[in-house]
Every structure is written in C-alpha cells, then in structure tokens.
Amino acid sequence: MRFGMIAAVALLAPGASWAQDGTGDAAAGEEHFNRQCISCHVVQNEAGEVLAGRNAKVGPNLYGVVGRVAGSYPDFAYSDLMMTYGATGAVWEEANFTAYIQDPTGYLREATGESGRSKMAYQVRDEQEAHDLYAYMATFSSDAAAAPAEGEAPAEAEAPSQ
C-alpha cells in the first residue's frame, strides 16, 4: 500500500522536474551506473561489444532494455515474480522502470498481485537518479520512442496496468 501511494503521488506531482522534462539526465545516469550497477549488469550489443559495465553476469544484459518486454532477455534465470510480470506483456518504459529500480520486489508484487521476490536486491533511493538511469539506458535502445530527440517534448509514459 505504501509503495502504491508513493508511486501515485510521484507520478502525479506537477512540480517534479523529471515529470516536466520526461527522462532524466543520461550523463548523470551513466555516472550512477558506473558506481552501482556495473557490479551486476553489463550493456553488451549483439556483436558482443561491451558498451558499459564490466561484463558482469549477475543481472541480465541491459542492452535494449528500454522497450523490451520485462523478463525476456534470453538465457537469463529471472525470478518467478519477474517472469509473471513479463507474462503480462509489460514493456520497460520510464514509469515502470523507475518504479521498479526504486523497489524491485515491492513493485513486482504490486504489479502482479503475487508474492515472491525480485532477484535485484539493490534499490535506487533517489527518484531523480532512477530517472537519470532510465535516460542512460534509453541511449542503448533501438526503440525510437524510448528517448525524445533533442529539443522535442517526450511522449507521455503510461503507468503499467494493474
């Protein structure tokens, strides 16, 4: 319940700068990724080139995560809870990505109505950092809708249906 209220208030708060700007700051997201995320994740393209991270294999490859169905990276052993979420057809976009990385288990439980745990233990405590990480991950996506072109207003991100 607490998570739902926080998420609802955060999504509806008109004064939040990230809500007005759409995505966060990709450069700041890169800094955060290099401080925290590289211990578990890598961003590696189809050619095998490591674009970010240290080839870590604890978490799934995040190349193209924005616009990808949740829990769908091939040959990664996701938690049952993430697989349940992915089976709903949920696609990673700003609203669900940022909510998930702030409370992985809580978000998945609320989104699916199921019990269980996410394998991702780390939680991004700062909401702006979550949006910055999304902006950085969007730079590795082939989904043209993932990040607006410079000077353009972003499309409205929809919260996942519950």
Question: What are the key terms here?
Answer:
162 residues, mainly alpha, Cytochrome Bc1 Complex, Chain D, domain 2, two-stranded antiparallel sheet, 4% strand, globular, disordered C terminus
Spell out the helices and strands N to C: HHHEEHHHH
Q: Radius of gyration over alpha carbons?
A: 15 Å
Mean pLDDT across all residues, rounded?
81
What amount of the residues lies in strands? under 5%
Spatially, the strands of the biggest sheet line up as: 1-2
Biggest beta sheet attributes: 2 strands, antiparallel
The span between the termini is 13 Å
Helical residue percent?
25-40%
* Large-scale geometry: globular
CATH domain class of the domain at 2-10 and 40-138: Mainly Alpha
Remind me, CATH topology of the domain at 2-10 and 40-138? Cytochrome Bc1 Complex, Chain D, domain 2
GO molecular function, one term: metal ion binding
Domain Cytochrome c: 24-141
Signal peptide: 1-19
Organism: Rubellimicrobium roseum
Summary of the model, kept short:
Helix content is 40%, strand content 4%.
Give a description of the structure.
The structure is a single chain. With 162 residues, the chain is mainly alpha-helical. The chain has a domain at 2-10 and 40-138: Cytochrome c-like domain (Cytochrome Bc1 Complex, Chain D, domain 2). The protein is 40% helix and 4% strand. The chain contains seven helices and two strands; from the N terminus they run αααββαααα. The protein has helices at 2-12, 17-21, 26-35, 80-87, 94-102, 104-112, 127-138; strands at 42-44, 50-53. A two-stranded antiparallel sheet has the order 1-2. Strand 1 and strand 2 form a beta hairpin. Helix 5 (94-102) packs across helix 6 and helix 5 (94-102) crosses helix 7. The longest helix has 12 residues, at 127-138. The protein is globular, with a radius of gyration of 15 Å. The two termini are 13 Å apart. Mean pLDDT is 81; it is low at 5-21 and 144-162. Residues 1-19 form the signal peptide. Residues 24-141 form the Cytochrome c domain. GO terms for molecular function: electron transfer activity; heme binding; metal ion binding. It comes from Rubellimicrobium roseum. InterPro entries: Cyt_c-like_dom, Cyt_c-like_dom_sf, Cyt_c_1A/1B.
